[in-house]
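ligand=adenosine-5-diphosphoribose
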Amino acid sequence: MNNYAHLIADAASKIKQGKYFTAFTGAGISVESGIPSFRGKEGLWSRYDPKFVEIDYFRAHPGECWTVLAKIFYEQVLSARPNPAHEVLARWESRGLLKAIVTQNIDNLHYIAGNQKVIEYHGTTRTLECLLCKSIKLATQSVLRELPPKCQCGGIMKPSFVFFGEEIPADAAHAAVQEALVSDVMLVIGTTGTVMPANMIPLYASRSGAFIIEINPEPGEFTHSIVDLYLPLKASEALLHLEQAINQSAG
Ligand code: APR
């Protein structure tokens, strides 16, 4: 860690000097909560076919998809808890330092940690919506007892997260771009930066002049293109050291 102390100190002072500090998060921030990422050697897509979260395949095979969806996104996610990385971001929001989070994650861990201003770019596992009448209900254990979950109208319920082949919710897309355009410091945490159009958000921030800090043990699409300061660390370790550096230089 001590060979990154100077990088932590530089990042801490950039965050403190910032007028509008935001975060953009990916699956990597939840890995230390026990939720596997999508890519990489242990990634979900190396174990499951992404077709199960492809909208046309889901409409044609809801039962088969739900068997996999329940396993991947509900058994584990419903029991996962925020890790220290989520908790630092929640403390930074409550002290007015962090203005917003744009997350690609659907695991609700930013909300559970206490962040209010969270733009869920890919939706959420928190609720289900009916393919027929569009009604929405909470994704509780009881609702998930019978798969595929059915609506009172008889329609099949789908998780409220964005499947491949679906549009990004317009309100989330708009809000995320607005945050990117006003950010002067953006912390990009735990993402390969490979998925469009989510990966445009840090790009918009960078093009609007924001200083981009990345936390990721592995370099990704952003690292050698838009990142101004790269911390090759795991999310919890980096965020706890950043918080310590910011608190020490408080004043
Ligand atoms: N701390 C920080 N980053 C980590 C950690 C950790 N402890 N462990 C892994 N990572 C990094 C990996 O190095 C990788 O860069 O997290 C990243 C995870 O990348 P992906 O699995 O591609 O996740 P993400 O970038 O969020 O994927 C974007 O793809 O399948 C879609 O909708 C899905 O939202 C997801 C989108």
